[in-house]
């Protein structure tokens, strides 16, 4: 057995062959697997960080849009408020009616 | 014994293992033995309190969705002073946008002695910046990293003073008036603040945000029963009435007696809620809502409740009559009719038509009795808040036979609304029971709430009680309708059957009643037989001639003006033919 397992290199007998090859294969497989898992993990972390960054930006944008929306909403409400409409009406020449009389119209649309 | 390469290989392996052992040992120490200490140090380094942007408070809208209270974004502006390269240029650019002069701004750019050792120095430059100025500063910030903008919100009232008492305000401490104060717990946003991993500017790291552990919520939106068009019209009519009659104050309440919804509540004095902080201390009485927080003696309007109590309790029947001598004495109190005259034989209709003090005093003292009368006063909701949902509502002042303060004379004076203090909202609510066939609806100002998640929570009408039977209520309404047809003609609205009652109440002063000043009022509703509109008009201290200083002459015409227009605005068609 020792003869089959040994190989003479520079006259120095070494133990190698089948056992070392198996170990090497196992080592390489494990290394590749660990490296793959590591890459996968790093990829996921990077992706997660990127998504988190996007969320933060969207959060900020949403807050800004909400602020702008509120500003526009209050501006529309102010422009269509009764005091503003009254001033605008007067500027357009309308006047408050001194006397209003409501007419009772009976049977409108009856054949 | 091994020799040569193999021995060397083993030696190298042993050395490597020997070298690795301390590393592994250190790892164990760092990760296991001293884990807590190092974790605390890391947390101290990167874990900081932070807050998400504050969402807006809830809005307040009228029944048609028109905005009554909203939010406008405002900004606090600051600067990291140590990073400013050209303070002169910065001051020149920012001063007009911050409404400051350049010299003031340059002072803010100076690093004080006590700040010299700090790694970085930040100063607040201004707050409350909004609109175009804020937008311009945002643009400057794109090129100036040292400029900071902190967004926050400012309550905004687009209709200015409209419905100021109903809407109210809340100060920085959370105290205030109106809906803003009473619903503060719902309207205010829920800020999100906590500890987490932040960067140097205390902005949460992406990973921290992605955890989603913190969520900020906007405030709950509220929709009121108020109609802004009706409110504006009623406020305008109140202003005109105050000017016309020289009254020092007044209130007009508009209510749907079938649902208890308040359509408008106008009172003077009022204020601009946007500018509440600018009012002088001596002027802050005007923040108090006279409709719910100020009591008055209602006077003769109260007679409708006295008559209702007498009928409903069975103390008298509808054929009851008495001889009116114009005078009655009870419990040491001498009572006369308002005209000082006796009116001979009178029935219930005569008591209401002529507003006879002696008649109602006769009812309470000789037929109803103190305990039964007090029971009906409480049934109509007097002496306790209506819980309409406004801050600072008062219960009024009711004397009851079982109170230590009770005097027999109260049984006489309360019969015609003196010696009892009520709020306008209590009067309107009590009268709504008669208008609504004996069923008294709880007055309400909020019709629905909308949560930040979009869930709509309707607030349904609620029955507050049944103080009198439908028969009694309808009969008393009939008496009131007759009074309007015959005695209070200025309250009549062509085409509509109206029921109503006037009041002219003396004002209590130290030691008795003011001999000249009065509070005139009118409560009316229509169109009969199923009124959809109840209007209370109250005018404080009208300064017209004494001969016309009566509810009939002052408050009733205001009711007419308001009711005539509101029937049209609300699309309530006439029930009677209108004479051309």
Number of strands of chain B: 22
Q: In angstroms, what separates the terminal alpha carbons of chain A?
A: 122 Å
- Measure the end-to-end span of chain B: 136 Å
Rg of chain B, Å, rounded: 35 Å
What is the string of helix and strand elements of chain A? HEEHH
Give the averaged pLDDT of chain A, no decimals. 78
How many strands, what sense, and barrel or not for the largest sheet of chain B?
7 strands, mixed
Overall tally of structural domains of chain A: 1
Which oligomerization state do the chains in this entry correspond to?
heterodimer
- What structural class results from the helix and strand content of chain A? mainly alpha
Please give the share of residues in helix of chain A.
55-70%
Given the structure, what is the number of helices of chain A?
Answer: 3
Helical amount of chain B: 25-40%
Please explain how this structure is put together.
The complex is a heterodimer of chains A (111) and B (580). Chain A has 111 residues and is mainly alpha-helical. Chain A has one domain (2-91). Chain A has 3 helices and 2 strands. The longest helix of chain A is centred in the middle third of the chain and has 62 residues, at 18-79. The radius of gyration of chain A is 43 Å and the shape is rod-shaped. The termini of chain A are far apart. Chain B is built from 19 helices and 22 strands. In chain B, the strands form 7 sheets. In chain B, strands 2, 3, 4, 5, 9, 17 and 18 form a 7-stranded mixed beta sheet that branches. In chain B, helix 10 runs antiparallel to helix 19 (555-569). Chain B is elongated and about 140 Å long.
């Amino acid at each position: 057995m020792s003869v089959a397992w040994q190989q003479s290199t520079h006259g120095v007998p070494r133990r190698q062959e089948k056992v070392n090859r198996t170990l090497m294969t196992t080592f390489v497989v494990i290394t590749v697997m660990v490296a793959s898992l590591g890459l996968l993990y790093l990829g996921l972390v990077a992706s997660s960080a990127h998504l988190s960054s996007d969320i933060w930006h969207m959060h900020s944008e949403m807050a800004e849009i909400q602020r702008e929306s509120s500003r526009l909403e209050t501006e529309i409400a102010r422009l269509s408020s009764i005091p503003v409409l009254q001033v605008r009406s007067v500027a357009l020449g309308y006047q408050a009616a001194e006397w209003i009389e409501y007419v009772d119209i009976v049977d409108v649309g009856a054949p | 014994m091994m020799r040569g390469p193999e021995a060397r290989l083993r030696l190298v392996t042993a050395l490597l293992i020997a070298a690795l052992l301390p590393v592994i040992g250190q790892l164990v120490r760092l990760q296991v033995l001293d884990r807590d200490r190092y974790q605390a140090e890391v947390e101290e380094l990167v874990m900081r309190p932070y807050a998400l942007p504050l969402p807006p408070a809830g809005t307040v809208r009228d029944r048609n969705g028109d905005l009554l209270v909203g939010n406008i974004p405002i900004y606090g502006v600051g600067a990291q002073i140590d990073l400013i390269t050209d303070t002169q240029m910065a001051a020149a650019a920012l001063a007009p946008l911050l409404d400051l002069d350049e010299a003031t701004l340059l002072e803010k750019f100076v690093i004080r002695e006590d700040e010299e050792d700090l790694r970085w120095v930040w100063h607040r430059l201004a707050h409350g910046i909004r609109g175009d100025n804020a937008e311009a500063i945002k643009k400057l910030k794109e090129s100036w990293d040292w400029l900071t903008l902190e967004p926050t919100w400012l309550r905004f009232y687009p209709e200015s003073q409209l419905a100021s008492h109903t809407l109210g305000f809340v100060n920085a401490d959370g105290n205030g008036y109106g809906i803003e104060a009473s619903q503060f717990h719902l309207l205010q946003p829920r800020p999100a603040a906590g500890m987490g991993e932040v960067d140097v500017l205390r902005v949460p790291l992406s990973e921290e945000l992605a955890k989603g552990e913190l969520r900020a919520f906007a405030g709950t939106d509220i929709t009121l029963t108020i109609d802004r068009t009706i409110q504006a019209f009623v406020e305008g009519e109140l202003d005109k009435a105050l000017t016309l009659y020289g009254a020092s104050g007044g209130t007009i309440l508009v209510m749907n007696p079938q649902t208890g919804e308040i359509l408008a509540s106008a009172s003077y004095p009022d204020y601009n809620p946007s500018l509440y902080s600018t009012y002088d201390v001596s002027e802050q009485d005007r923040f108090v809502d006279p409709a719910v927080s100020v009591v008055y003696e209602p006077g003769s309007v109260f007679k409708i409740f006295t008559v209702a109590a007498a009928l409903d309790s069975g103390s008298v029947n509808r054929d009851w009559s008495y001889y009116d001598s114009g005078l009655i004495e009870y419990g040491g109190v001498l009572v006369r009719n308002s005209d000082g005259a006796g009116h001979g034989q009178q029935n219930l209709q005569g008591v209401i038509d002529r507003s006879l003090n002696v008649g109602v005093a006769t009812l309470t003292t000789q037929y109803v009795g103190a305990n039964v009368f007090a029971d009906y006063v409480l049934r109509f909701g007097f002496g306790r808040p209506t819980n309409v949902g406004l801050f600072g509502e008062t219960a009024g002042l009711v004397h009851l036979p079982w109170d230590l303060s009770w005097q027999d004379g109260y049984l006489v004076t309360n019969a015609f609304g003196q010696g009892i203090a009520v709020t306008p909202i209590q009067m309107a609510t009590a009268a709504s029971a008669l208008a609504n066939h004996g069923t008294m609806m709880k007055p309400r100002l909020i019709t629905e709430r909308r949560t930040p998640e979009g869930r709509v929570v309707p607030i349904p009408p609620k029955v507050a009680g049944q103080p009198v039977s439908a028969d009694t209520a309808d009969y008393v309404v009939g008496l009131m309708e007759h009074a309007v047809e015959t005695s209070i003609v200025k309250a009549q609205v062509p085409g509509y059957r109206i029921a109503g009652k006037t009041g002219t109440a003396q004002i209590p002063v130290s030691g008795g009643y003011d001999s000249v000043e009065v509070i005139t009022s009118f409560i009316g509703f229509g169109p009969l037989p199923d009124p959809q509109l109840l209007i209370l008009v109250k005018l404080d201290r009208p300064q017209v001639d004494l001969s016309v200083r009566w509810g009939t002459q002052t408050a009733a015409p205001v009711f007419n003006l308001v009711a005539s227009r509101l029937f049209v605005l609300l699309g309530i068609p006439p029930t009677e033919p209108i004479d051309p």
